[in-house]
Every structure is written in structure tokens, then in C-alpha cells.
Design brief:
The complex is a heterodimer of chains A (657) and B (282). By secondary structure, chain A is an alpha+beta fold. Chain A contains 28 helices and 17 strands. Chain A has a 6-stranded antiparallel beta sheet with strand order 2-3-1-9-8-10, covered by helices on one side. Chain A has a 6-stranded antiparallel beta sheet with strand order 4-5-6-7-11-12, with helices on one face. In chain A, β6 and β7 form a beta hairpin. In chain A, α13 packs antiparallel against α14 and α25 runs antiparallel to α26. Chain B folds into 2 domains: 155 residues, Regulatory protein AraC (Jelly Rolls); 105 residues, Arc Repressor Mutant, subunit A (Orthogonal Bundle), CATH 1.10.10. At the A-B interface, α2, β2 and α28 of A face β4, α6 and α9 of B.
Chain lengths: 657, 282
């Protein structure tokens, strides 16, 4: 049984609650919205909001709505609604004071509703949105800390004439905005701003472009354009008719001092806390599936969810290139767990066809080849289920990246005297290329904050200079992570790396691709690892519990070793492997060459340098596939969002994009 | 078959209509005639399963013969709807007809993707067709045929083509029509998803997904919409007591009817009848 966090009473298991909620809600509501809070009502622009809303129609293709209250207006997309009794959105409180919309899921809304009911607060529907408004009325903006789930929320207060906009703590659900002299415009996806004529079209901020070629995405709260911003994860914003009054960070995900608890006891607690999270994440849906790769995270999620719902479907994508398919390993897991397994075998042709749409879907460019695989498997999943459980967040919380191992070796020298570090750098500089040890000396000789900027590191400064025409040597690639590292000064290097990844990589790459590429198919992805309670547990683990005997996510693997087959227990991470490295030498060579040759982004990318990179990759002189990928993504992004924006708009209105 | 899913039945000797419309009705339907939607004011969303078009003022869209579609409009929107059978342009300018696609498969059907001179000429043809149909001056039918020939030729020769091509019809479209026909003939009685799935020979879960993915809405939503449309018509055009309207439109009881009606139109059936207008969705 689960005790309510606020009143302490038993509320039944999450599963029981889920079954009840399924009967109550009857349907899943996922949506996106675009909104405007203007200086005065005469500035409300229904036409703009309608076209912006059409741009994100995939987030809720069933119904659209438009509402206006004073100078606040919202166009809203719904995925589905059956029962009109369930309190459809936008929701206005019975006294007419508040109007609210939200996108996402609040998994504990029934826990939160109960004490309010006991206080005598009346509810007219069984929806999450009514609970959100009741909590906001009672607690003000801080109510957001009570929510367990993924969300982007807008609440307009007609009495105070102000507006609250908030986003979930991990950044699972998106929220973009642009402040102008006339007001603030919001949208669930950045692409909606393509119709914002007052903005005058997207542009490239060279500073952000340079960061993109470091990180392979543009970290929050920035976008590549610079004209549109992201409301950061764990933040809310308060607005008045004058504009943005303040932006508040309501939660800071800091690692805690490890608790004194035995390893066994921690493993037991982890099983409990993660099982409960999966139960919560399965609330209210009958058609639920899981993304199953060959790794431990998705196997654990599939194992737990199949114990709750044995009818669950597991989906895997693989490609027809040797060693680039997880299908066989995933089949073993599915067989072991006795779940229905749906396999999608992709090929190069399908990959090529999906590319443009993937780039379009991602808003700011994200140069991660796995995006195309995720897009394809999400499309397949949408044919079978409405909701998918996925293992995102496990690597960041439990220490799953192999880079973290470096912290144990080179980390020993982290606090070494400057002279020692200088000596290491010197050795590294003269150490021959390609001979083992060079990288070690480099790491040992360089401070963590100067060498680690998160999971991906695409181009170093010298490489950027060779093809990026707007390269600015005065701009440091560490400037966005410097403040993040400053907050963990003195902590173990692995904790510092994890914190950096949570603040940058997770929300800028992992969750962006998870949300946009599933929503492109009107599919909702839920991420049970990224849950308040799971985080609370994970944040108090010691480095040794996460990384032991050269094994990443050690405690997680250990805790669930009996849930999955033994081979999975120790299998290394693959992470949607896509054979782009191989294809760029063969099948995709001409295609890539063509994209570079016809690039309209000459102002930024030196074609000849990019072509040389491709030739070097083809001939085997260098392994440039990730670098090339980032260039191909940017060139295509530039065409869709800037060079051919007028054509793009026509394609959106004609239903093509 | 009721007109609800075939649209208005046109005269068989002169299958043509050109009307200025203000309410799309939001129900999926089809007809054997081709349809040209030309927006005069506001914005109109046209949904053809799998694809949504947002037409702005001045834009046009061609809908093929037999193609399931629905129109959602903004409250202030007005648009011309020109419908004509392929038979109106014989000797045949189009292949197909009846259950087959008539429009060339790869043309771009939305004028937003045409060059402005082409769109301008096409728009003028639509307006002239409307003017002729409205005035019905001597010889108007000859004039209409002439304009339709010109339009058909433009479709064949001048409209740009896309590499992507239009969605091709397949069996699913046939199944969808069968389903919609069954619903239109049976919505006044208590029918379930299971019964409909059985009639179609589908597994219930598959059928539910099929319906949703091809119409964009759920089975029960569609059924309710059909019933509401019938109720609306009975309220406005007959003096039948509300209890009779409830039964004839297929609702199971007055309580459900009142609740659903109010949620949809923002007023009670009685107020709606008194107002004599469709309050629109709030």
C-alpha cells in the first residue's frame, strides 16, 4: 500500500489506483499548446496562434481549440477525448478565476486530490488539470514541487491578471518562449515560431552554432536561433501584463552524501522504489508498451512492467548490418520475460527517407544518429500502443556512461599540484598519436571542467576552425558548463560528471529526442527512471555503489539481476546503434555528398572542408561519422528552418510536414 | 444510405453544386463528386485521414471523388464548395471515377503549393462557377460545363506535381466507408464497438485502432457526433418533443443527451431550439 505524502493515509497500490484511473479517465490526453500573454487584449492574434498550433498538430491531432481571456490566449491540441465528463482542457475553474492548460501526465494527482477533498474542496471532474488549479489556488507557485510527473503547465489568473508557466524538474516535456515588446509567446515546440512574422524568421546565432559543434545539441536555455528560449527544466516563470516578472528555479538536483545503509538493503530499496515508479507510470493506460533494446535499463523496465501487465508489448529496432542490431539480444530478453515482442528491421533506404522529418521534428538541431532509429521505432510503436515506457535517465542517475570510469583513474590526479598537471600535459603533447597512454596523460593533466562538457564532445577547437566559417577563437567551449562545475566543486569527479550530464546532456539531447520523435507520431513516451522518488534514492548512492570492478550502474544491475536473463545483466550499453559509420562509406556516401554540395548554409559551413571530411571517412583515413552527421543535420536544419522557410511553411499548411 | 456520410445528393442529370458555406460540420464523409474548397474568409482545416491541411483565406484544396474527409472551420470562416461529378467533363478528362481515384495521383492538391498565377486562375474559375450557379441566367448550365472543362484541363496540365504523390486508396478506405455506412444506418439504435467490429469481421481492438487511425477520432466520439447532428437537425426543423428527439437521434436517455448536448453546444437543447441557431463549440 502507498501512504499519501500529504495526509499519510493508505491510498491503495499505485496499480490499483491506476486501474481506477483507467476507468475514470477512459482515455489518454496528450497535447501541445501555443499561447500568448500580451500587453493588452488588442494584440491577441488568433491567426498566428492557429498556424502555430497547426505546426505542432502531431502532438494532438484529434482536436484543436482556441480560447481567449483578456490578453491571454491559447490554442491547444488534444490527442483524444472520449468522455466529456473528464474535464477537457483548457480548463476554467467554476468561479471563472483560473484558466489552465497542461501537457503531460501527473502520476500522483489522485494522491494530491484526496487531502483537498477532505478539506472540503469540491471537484467537478476527475482530471489532473482540476487538481493542478486547486493546488495553485491553495499553495501558489510552490505547488509545482508536489507534482510527480512530466509536464508543462500554464495557468492564467483572471483576478490578478497574471500568468504562471512551469516545467517539470527533469525537462521531459518542452516549453519554448519568446519575449517581445508586445508580450510573451509560448509553444510546446520551437518550430511553431516559424509562423511568427514579428520574429522575422529563425536566424543562426553563431555563438550557439559553435556550442552545437561542441555538444552535438544546443544546451538549455538556449536554442540555435537565439530568438527563442527554452524555459529550463525545474523552473517556473511568472508573468504580468508588463512581461516576464521572474524566472525561478524551484528544484536543484544535487547529489547527497551517501547514506549508511548496507548494499543489500539499498538493492532491496531500489527494487521497491523503481517498481513503484513503473506502477505510477502505467497509471490510466491499457495500451502500453516498452522500448526494449539489448541493454539493462529497458530490460528492467520491461521486466517490471510485464509483472504488472503481462500483456505488455516490447518493441525493438535493428538494422540489417552485422553488429548493428539489438534484435537478437532483445528477443532473448523478451523470451525470458515471456512478453510479446515486436521487431522492426530497418534499412538504409528507410533511414534516408526519415532523415528530413527527423531534423524537422527536433527543433534545434540534435546531431545524434540514434534519433533516426528512435523516430522509426516510435512510428512502429504508435501502430500498436499509445504509450511507451522507456529507460531514459538511468545512465545519468545510476552512472551508466563508460566515461565515468575515467573519473576513477585520472580522477586520482584531479587535485594534484599544477606543476604535476603541466608535466602530464607536456607528456601528452609529445606522446605519439595512436599510442596507448596519450589520452590518459591528457586527462590527468587537464582539470575536469576543462576537458569534460557532458556526454558528447564532437569537435575540438582546432577541428571546428577548419570548417566553421563563423568560428570565434575567443569563445570557450567550457563557458556553458563552467557554472555547472562550480556548483560541485570539491565533489568526486564522477559526481561532477553526472551533475554536468543531468544539467546539459539529459535535457538537451536525450529528452529532446525522446519527446519530439515520439510526439511526431502522436505517441507518448514515459520515463520511470526520471521520477522524484527514484532520483531521491539515486542521489544518495556512493561512487563505489555505481561504479565497481569496472562495471557501470553496478547497484542497478545487481538489484535486478534476477529479473532478467544472465547475459543481459552485464551487457554493455549500445544505445540504439545505427550503422551510419558504415553507410557513410557506402550507401549514404552519395546522399551525404549531395547534401553538402547543395548546402545553402555557406555562410557557416565550408563545403570543401566538409567534403574532405567525408572523403577521409570514406577512405578510412579518419572516423568522422559523428562529425559528418552533425554537419549534415545542420545543413538540413538550415534549409528547412531558414533558407527554404517559405517553402516549409507551405508544406506545413499542406499537411506535408 | 443517409445523406449524412455521402453529403448532399446532387441532381443525377446535372451533378454539380457551388455553395458558400460557413459550417463544416466536422463529420467525416465522402461523395462521388470531386470537391474544390476555396476559402473566402478565415481559416479552414481539412482532414483527409493521415493528412491535415490548414487553408488560409484565398487558398484552395481539391478533394478526390470518394475520398473520406472532414472540414473544421473557425467561427468566422466562409468558403466556396464546388462539387462536380467526373461525368460533367465527358468526353472523359479523368481516368477512374466511382470507387477509383480521379485526380492524378501525384498532383499537389493544395493551392498553397502552386504558383500564384495558376492559383489565381483556378480561384477565378471557382468564383465564376459560384456566380453562374447562383444567378442561373439563361445558358448557365452550358457556362458551368465550360468552366468545369477548363478547370479539369488545368488539373491535368498545369497543377504542379510532387515526388511524394497522393495517398493511394486501398482496402482500408473501402473498409472505412463500409463502417461509416453501417454507422449511418444504425446510429439511432444502441450499437457497440464490438457489434460494429463483428459486422466488419475485425477483432475489436484492431477495429478500434483502425477507426481511430483513419478518422482521427474514436468510435464513440463519431457515434455521438452523428447523433448530435441528427438531434440538431430535428430540433431546428421539427416541432418534435425533446423526448422524441432523444429517441430518434439514438441517445439512450434524456439525461445523457442533455449533458452531451450542453457540453458540445454550450446550451440546453431547449435553449438551442429557441435560439434557432447552432451556438457553436465553446
Amino acid at each position: 500500500m502507498i501512504a499519501c505524502r500529504y495526509c499519510g493515509k493508505d491510498t491503495g497500490t499505485a496499480l490499483e489506483q491506476g486501474r481506477m484511473a483507467a476507468r475514470w479517465k477512459g482515455v489518454l490526453i496528450v497535447c501541445g499548446f501555443v499561447g500568448m500573454f500580451n500587453r493588452d487584449a488588442s494584440l491577441n492574434d488568433e491567426k498566428l496562434l492557429t498556424t502555430m498550433s497547426h505546426t505542432i498538430r502531431h502532438r494532438g491531432p484529434d482536436e484543436s481549440d482556441y480560447i481567449v481571456r483578456d490578453s491571454f490566449c491559447v490554442a491547444f491540441r488534444r490527442l483524444s477525448i472520449i468522455d466529456l465528463d473528464t474535464g477537457s482542457q483548457p480548463y476554467t475553474s467554476p468561479d471563472g478565476r483560473f484558466t489552465a492548460v497542461f501537457n503531460g501526465e501527473i502520476y500522483n494527482y489522485r494522491d494530491l486530490r484526496k487531502p483537498l477533498l477532505e478539506e472540503g474542496i469540491e471537484f467537478h471532474t476527475n482530471s489532473e488539470i482540476e487538481v493542478i488549479v486547486a493546488l495553485y489556488r491553495k499553495y501558489g507557485p510552490d505547488f509545482i514541487k508536489m507534482l510527480r510527473g512530466m509536464f508543462a503547465i500554464m495557468i492564467y489568473d483572471g483576478e490578478q491578471k497574471n500568468c504562471f508557466v512551469g516545467r517539470d524538474p527533469f525537462g521531459i516535456k518542452p516549453m519554448y518562449y519568446r519575449e517581445t515588446e508586445l508580450g510573451v509567446i509560448f509553444a510546446s515546440e520551437m518550430k511553431a515560431f516559424i509562423f511568427d512574422e514579428e520574429m522575422g524568421g529563425f536566424t543562426v546565432d553563431p555563438k550557439m552554432l559553435q556550442h552545437y559543434f561542441t555538444f552535438q545539441y544546443v544546451p538549455e536555455p538556449y536554442t540555435i536561433s537565439g530568438k527563442v528560449s527554452v524555459l529550463e527544466a525545474s523552473h517556473y516563470m511568472l508573468l504580468s501584463a508588463k512581461g516576464i516578472e521572474k524566472i525561478v528555479q524551484y528544484e536543484d538536483y544535487r547529489f547527497q552524501t551517501p547514506t549508511r545503509e548496507s548494499f543489500e538493503s539499498k538493492a532491496e530499496r531500489l527494487r521497491k522504489v523503481l517498481t513503484e515508479s513503473v506502477e505510477y507510470h502505467m497509471i490510466s493506460d491499457v495500451e502500453v508498451g516498452t522500448f526494449l533494446s539489448s541493454g539493462i535499463d529497458s530490460a528492467i523496465i520491461t521486466a517490471i512492467s510485464s509483472r504488472i501487465n503481462p500483456g505488455i508489448k516490447a518493441l525493438t529496432v535493428g538494422f540489417d548490418v552485422a553488429s548493428y542490431s539489438e534484435i537478437d539480444d532483445a528477443s532473448e530478453i523478451a523470451k525470458h520475460l515471456n512478453v510479446e515482442h515486436i521487431k522492426l528491421k530497418g534499412n538504409c533506404e528507410q533511414f534516408r527517407e526519415a532523415f528530413e522529418r527527423v531534423v524537422w521534428s527536433l527543433d534545434s538541431p540534435v546531431a545524434d544518429p540514434s534519433t533516426v532509429a528512435i523516430y522509426m521505432i516510435a512510428g512502429e510503436a504508435a501502430r500498436y500502443v499509445k504509450t511507451i515506457l522507456s529507460g531514459e535517465g538511468s545512465d545519468e542517475l545510476f552512472g551508466g556512461y563508460k566515461f565515468y570510469k575515467d573519473s576513477q583513474l585520472s580522477g586520482r590526479f584531479e587535485n594534484a599540484p599544477a606543476i604535476f598537471k603541466a608535466a602530464c600535459r607536456g607528456i601528452s603533447a609529445i606522446w605519439p598519436d595512436g599510442v596507448k597512454g596519450k589520452a590518459f596523460f591528457h586527462r590527468a593533466g587537464t582539470r575536469l571542467e576543462d576537458r569534460y562538457v557532458g556526454n558528447a564532445f564532437l569537435f575540438d577547437e582546432k577541428e571546428k576552425k577548419s570548417f566553421l566559417k563563423t568560428y570565434n577563437p575567443a569563445q570557450s567551449y567550457t563557458e556553458l558548463t563552467r557554472d555547472i562545475f562550480a556548483q560541485t566543486k570539491g565533489e568526486h569527479p564522477m559526481i561532477r560528471m553526472q551533475y554536468c550530464d543531468l544539467m546539459t546532456w539529459l535535457r538537451g539531447d536525450i529528452l529532446v529526442k525522446g519527446d519530439r520523435l515520439s510526439m511526431a507520431h502522436s505517441l507518448e513516451v514515459r520515463v520511470p527512471f526520471l521520477d522524484r522518488e527514484v532520483w531521491k534514492f539515486a542521489s544518495s548512492l556512493s561512487v563505489d555503489e555505481k561504479l565497481r570492478e569496472g562495471t557501470t550502474k553496478y547497484l542497478l544491475r545487481y538489484a535486478f539481476k534476477d529479473y532478467v536473463n544472465p547475459e543481459t545483466f552485464m551487457r554493455p550499453k549500445l544505445g540504439y546503434p545505427v550503422p551510419v559509420r558504415v553507410w557513410l562509406k557506402n550507401e549514404l556516401y552519395e546522399w551525404a555528398r549531395d547534401i553538402i554540395l547543395h548546402s545553402k548554409a555557406d555562410e557557416y559551413i565550408d563545403k570543401q572542408a566538409a567534403l574532405k571530411m567525408l572523403e577521409d571517412h570514406r577512405s578510412g583515413k579518419a572516423d568522422n561519422y559523428r562529425k559528418l552527421w552533425s554537419i549534415l543535420v545542420f545543413i538540413t536544419w538550415y534549409r528547412l528552418y531558414i533558407a527554404d522557410a517559405e517553402e516549409t511553411k507551405k508544406r506545413i499548411l499542406a499537411g506535408e510536414l | 444510405m443517409e445523406a449524412i456520410y455521402q453529403g448532399r445528393i446532387l441532381r443525377s442529370d446535372f451533378p454539380f453544386s457551388a455553395e458558400l458555406l460557413t459550417d463544416g460540420g466536422q463529420l467525416y464523409h465522402w461523395h462521388d463528386e470531386l470537391e474544390l474548397v476555396c476559402v473566402k474568409e478565415g481559416m479552414v482545416e481539412v482532414v483527409i485521414p493521415g493528412r491535415e491541411y490548414l487553408l488560409q483565406t484565398g487558398q484552395m484544396l481539391l478533394i478526390d471523388s470518394g475520398e473520406v474527409h472532414c472540414l473544421k472551420n473557425h467561427p468566422e470562416a466562409r468558403w466556396l464548395s464546388v462539387r462536380f461529378s467526373p461525368r460533367m467533363v465527358e468526353p472523359r478528362l479523368f481516368e477512374g471515377g466511382g470507387s477509383q481515384a480521379v485526380l492524378p495521383l501525384n498532383i499537389l492538391r493544395c493551392s498553397g503549393q502552386w504558383e500564384e498565377p495558376t492559383a489565381g486562375r483556378f480561384r477565378r474559375l471557382a468564383e465564376n462557377l459560384y456566380a453562374e450557379a447562383n444567378a442561373q441566367a439563361p445558358g448557365w448550365q452550358v457556362a458551368v460545363r465550360g468552366l468545369l472543362f477548363e478547370m479539369a484541363l488545368m488539373i491535368q496540365r498545369e497543377l504542379p506535381q510532387s515526388g511524394e504523390g497522393m495517398a493511394r486508396r486501398d482496402n482500408r478506405d473501402v473498409n472505412l466507408k463500409k463502417t461509416l455506412s453501417f454507422l449511418a444506418e444504425n446510429y439511432t439504435r444502441d450499437i457497440s464497438l464490438k457489434e460494429c467490429a463483428d459486422v466488419m469481421g475485425f477483432n475489436m481492438n484492431y477495429f478500434s485502432r483502425f477507426f481511430r487511425s483513419h478518422t482521427g477520432i474514436h468510435f464513440h466520439q463519431y457515434l455521438t457526433a452523428l447523433r448530435l447532428q441528427k438531434a440538431q437537425q430535428l430540433l431546428l426543423t421539427t416541432g418534435l418533443p425533446i423526448t422524441e428527439v432523444v429517441i430518434r437521434s439514438g441517445f439512450q436517455n434524456a439525461k445523457t443527451f442533455n449533458r452531451v448536448f450542453k457540453n458540445t453546444y454550450g446550451c440546453s437543447p431547449r435553449e438551442f431550439r429557441r435560439g434557432g441557431t447552432d451556438g457553436g463549440q465553446t
